[in-house]
Amino acid sequence: MILRVIMVLALFGAAAPAVWREWRSERAWAALRASGVLRIGIDPSAQPLSFFMPDGWTGYEADMARALAADMGLASQAVLIGYDGRFDALQTGQIDVFISAATLEDGRPDFVWSESYLDMGTRLIAPVQENVRQAADLEHRRVAVARGSAADRSVRYWVRRVAGLERVAVEDDVRAIEELRAGRVAAVFVSAEAALRAGCPSRGSGENGAGERCVAISPTTYAVLMRAGEQRLLHEINAALRRLREGELPRRWQVRWFSPTSAP
Prior knowledge:
This protein is an alpha/beta fold. It is built from eight helices and 13 strands. A six-stranded mixed sheet has the order 9-8-10-7-12-11, sandwiched between helices. Strands 4-1-5 form a three-stranded parallel sheet. The longest helix is centred in the first third of the chain and has 34 residues, at 2-35. The radius of gyration is 23 Å and the shape is elongated. The termini are far apart. The mean pLDDT is 91.
């Protein structure tokens, strides 16, 4: 009998921290729901993602953040923080989440990141018929790239590793894509902005609707940053992001903010 009691107490003691964390997480979520407002830390310093216009905070991330809050049944409140102050603002409870080009970082056990909502890394674009699914498939082919860009550094890396890969340097991403669509090169390496303007998926690899395959070469994923203890909030945000991805809004934001005629 005593042994059974000891075993029960041991099991309870092992489970207690997890139960406590879940209780605190649910309590924080209930308080947030009761407030009716998601306080969003922002750094409005990067067009077209997050910046100010006379009518207030705007950009791709502004549209996404407002839609995210609305999907969870909350109003959104933008709180000007600045990128360097994101962790302190979360720790002190000044904000509930931070949405401004937040990338995953190692060695931050007090914080968690949601699923990605945008990839701002270098992309490879090639006609579907070229059957290019990774940089290693570019043997003995010509690739255009904007001279001196981050994409150019990536191409130079692959030139040393892929047999017969020929780099064609041009003045900018626009010209690189023109070379591709004129059939003078088999593929291009371009910035995320250029890839999004060309209709590439906002996240990862996939086709762009113009008969071209877009490949994420060096992913730079942006996600919603929050405190590690609020697992219920993390769950709700990830669920909301998935619902938004199933609809037309992300595509509309992409067209609005990354088309050649998008607002400044």
